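Loading example: each entry is read as three labelled lines plus one structure line.
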Amino acid sequence: QGCEEPSGDTDDGSPKVIGFIQPQYESHFTDPGTSTFKFMRARLGVTGQIPYDFTYYVMAEFSSFVSSGGNPFLLDAFISYRRFEWAKMSVGSFKQPFGLEVNTSCSGLHTIMRSKVSDQLISPQRDMGFMVFGGTNENLLQYQFAIMNGTGLGVKDNNSKKDMIGRLKVNPLDFLSIGGSFRYGYPINNEETRTSFAAEFEVNLNNLLVQGEYIYDEGDQNPAAGGGCGSDPVILGEKRGGYWVQGMYMTKWMLQPVMKFEMFDLDSDIDENEEYITTFGLNYFFNDWTRLQVNYQYKAEKAGEVENDALLMQLQVKF
Amino acid sequence: QGCEEPSGDTDDGSPKVIGFIQPQYESHFTDPGTSTFKFMRARLGVTGQIPYDFTYYVMAEFSSFVSSGGNPFLLDAFISYRRFEWAKMSVGSFKQPFGLEVNTSCSGLHTIMRSKVSDQLISPQRDMGFMVFGGTNENLLQYQFAIMNGTGLGVKDNNSKKDMIGRLKVNPLDFLSIGGSFRYGYPINNEETRTSFAAEFEVNLNNLLVQGEYIYDEGDQNPAAGGGCGSDPVILGEKRGGYWVQGMYMTKWMLQPVMKFEMFDLDSDIDENEEYITTFGLNYFFNDWTRLQVNYQYKAEKAGEVENDALLMQLQVKF
Amino acid sequence: QGCEEPSGDTDDGSPKVIGFIQPQYESHFTDPGTSTFKFMRARLGVTGQIPYDFTYYVMAEFSSFVSSGGNPFLLDAFISYRRFEWAKMSVGSFKQPFGLEVNTSCSGLHTIMRSKVSDQLISPQRDMGFMVFGGTNENLLQYQFAIMNGTGLGVKDNNSKKDMIGRLKVNPLDFLSIGGSFRYGYPINNEETRTSFAAEFEVNLNNLLVQGEYIYDEGDQNPAAGGGCGSDPVILGEKRGGYWVQGMYMTKWMLQPVMKFEMFDLDSDIDENEEYITTFGLNYFFNDWTRLQVNYQYKAEKAGEVENDALLMQLQVKF
C-alpha cells in the first residue's frame, strides 16, 4: 500500500534504510515561459520485519516541492500483520486502495506525472486508517478494503464517520488483469457524502505494457485534503470524471518509449470544459536502481487552447 | 535521558537506526462525539558509540499530531561522555531529569497517555542543556543534574539565567525504589522564578508493578514552552499540583491489565477545580517489539461533570 | 559538493547512514547579555553507490536554529555520475561551487562560524542545479562548473534564466594551492544580473595550515534566498566585498590553536562601514569523530564600536 511494498525479507531483524530521490528539470512553455530545477520527490525511510508476522514501513517525504508549506512530512507509516494470507491487516498511514495509477508506486510510474484525473479525484491519495487485504499478482484474485479518516495525512478526522474504500483485481490470464475500485466517504461532515468508482485494465505481453483506467466521482469534496504529490487541488463540480490509457515497449537497449493519453472533466454538468493531455515519453534504465525519464506533455483544452505544454526530465536513484 | 537509552553496545562503530511508531485510534465521548485515526508518535533516529567513551543519540519526531505546526522536529539529540561511572555527562537536547513518569521512555509507558499533572507541570518536558548523571537501577543511588535553557526545544533561551533540574533515586531493596526531583528556573525573564518538587515510588514484585508520584509546582510559567507529547498547555494558577498512582499485573498470557488513578489541580488557590482521571487499561505484548494497548479514560471534574470520557487503542512497533 | 563528500566506497550496495550533531553553548556580550544552548547543526542522511558509476547523497538538516521557520529541511541531495574522471556530473541540490570557505565541509570548519563575507555574499550557499566537475587535491588542476536556479533551496526558480557558477583550483606545489571562483546570475528576474568573484589560497606545511580568501560581489540580490547556515541576510549595497585569513597549528596533544581575521564591507560606496572580526580559537580532537571548539569573537565596527563580542563553545560528533 505504500509507494514501495515492504519486502519482509530483511535477513536479520534490523531496520533497512530505503528511499529514492528524483531531481527534475522542467520547462513550461507558458507566456512568459518558466523553467526550474526541483525535486519531484525525495524520500527516506526504513522498513523491517518483526518475527514472525509483523512488518513495519516508515517513509518521509523531504522534497520542499510537495507539501503546501514546503516542509518534510510523514508519508506512509504502517504496521502490518501478515499471519493470514487472505486477511493481512495494516494500520497507520498509507494510500487509499483506489485505482491502478494511484496504487502504482511513485518510483515505478511510467510517466513522470500521474494523470490529472488520478491526482484530482482520488483525493486524499494518502490517509490514515485500517486495511484488510489479500492476494498477489500470482493469484486469480486480489483485494484491499480500508476504513480511513478521509481527511488526508496529518489531520484528525473532522467527523465521526469513516470513509470506506476498496479495490478488487482479477487476473484471469497470465498477461491480463482487470479491476474495479469504489469509495464511499464523508469529506467534511457526517451528512454530505462522496461516492467514487473506477475500472482498470492491464495487458502485459512480452515487452509490451498497456494500461488504462476510468474514474467517476460525485458529491462533497474537501479541497484541503489535497490531491496527489504536490498538485494543487482544483474546485470540482458535483459530478466529475476522466480516464487515461498508456502503452509502452521495452527495447533491448533498456530504452522504453511510452505514450499516454488522458482526459479530465472537472464538472460533467458543464459542456466543453474537458482537458486532454498527451504525453510522449522516453525512459532509459541505466540499471535496476537508476532511471532517466524525458516527457513532453501536449495539453489541449476543449474550451480554448492555452499555452501550457511542458518538457520534463527526471533522473531517479532508488536505494 | 532520551526516550530510549542509547545502548552503547553497537558492536561495530556504525550508526544504528532506531525508532518506533504508534498508530492509534481514539474515540472521544464528547457531544458531538469525535473519533480519528492518528499517530501518537512516529520516531526515527540513530544512535551509536564513538570509541571509547562517547555515545550519541539523535531522534526526530515525525508524527504530524505532536508539534503545533504539525511538522517533524528534532526531539532528543545529545552527545554523552561516559568515562566516569559517577559523573557521566551529556550535552544537547533531552528530557528534563524531573519525575518518574516523564522519564519513563515514551515507548515503555504503561498507559497510552501520561498523567495530566506530568504533561502540564513538567513543562517543557524536553529542553537543551548540559547534564551530569551517575548510577543505574542496580546501584543503591542514581542521580541526574542538569542546567538547561528552560525554553523548550528549538528555541533560544529568552534570558541569560539557566534552569537547574535534578533527580535523585534510592533503591534500598530489590523490589523498591523511591526518589525525588526539584527544579528552579526562569521561564520568561531573569527576575520571575519557578520552583517545582516531585516525590516518586516504585514497587516491582514478581509480575506486579505499582508506581506513583506527587508533583508540586509554583511561580512563573511559559505556556509557549509546551507540555508533553502534543498536549495543549493550560493556563496555570500561581500554585498547582497533582498526583498519579498505577498498578498492573503481567499474566502468563502476555496480557497485562493496568489501572491508573490521577488528580490534577491547575490552581491550588481555587477550591473545587480538581480533575480526576481513572484509566482502565489492557496491554497485550505480541512479542518484545510489538504491543497493543487499549485504554478507557473515565474523567471526573469536581466543578461539574463534563462529557469527555475516551476510548484509546494503540498498536506499537519498536525497531 | 555536499558538506561531506560521498565516499563511494561502501563495500556493499546498501545505503550508509551518515551525519553529525553540533550542540553549542554561546554567550553574547551585548547589553543586556544573552546566552543559550542550541544546535549549530544536526544532520542526518544517507549515502551510497549504485554499481558501477552512480553515487547518491541525501542529507537533511534537523536543527531548529537554521531555517527561518525552525523546521527540518532537505539540504544536499544529489545523484552523481562518475564514469569520466574529468567530467563527473551531479544533479540535485548542493553548494554553489564558489569559494574556499563555503566549500569547506560544515563539519570540517576550523572556526565555529564561517566568515561574514562568505555567509552574506555567497548567497544562496545551497541551490538546485546541474554540475560538471573533475580533478582532486592530488591533481594539478581541479574544477567545478554549475548551472543552478539561483533562488536557493526548496524554491522554484523565479525566472527562466539560470545562474552560472564556477571554481578553478591549481595545486602547483605539494603544500600550496591557489584558486578562483566566479558567478554570473539572475537573482530576481531575467533582466537584473549579479556578478561575483573570489580568489583563494592555502598553504599546508607540516602541522601548519594558513588559508585566505577575497570575495567581490556586485549587482542585484535576492535577500529571500538566504545566506549561510541560519545567518540572517543583511541588505547589501550595489557593490560589496571582504576577505578573511586564518592560521592554525596542530600540536602533538591534538590541541589546535587557531586565529582568524576577517573584514566585511556590505556597501563599498559608503566609507567607514567596514566590520572587522578577529576570532581566537582552540580546537581539541578527542578522536577522529569528536571535536571540541572554543571561539572568542572580537568584533570591531569602523563606524563606531558596538558591544557584540561573543564566546562560543561547540562539541561535535560525526558518524
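The first helix of chain A runs from residue 116 to 121.
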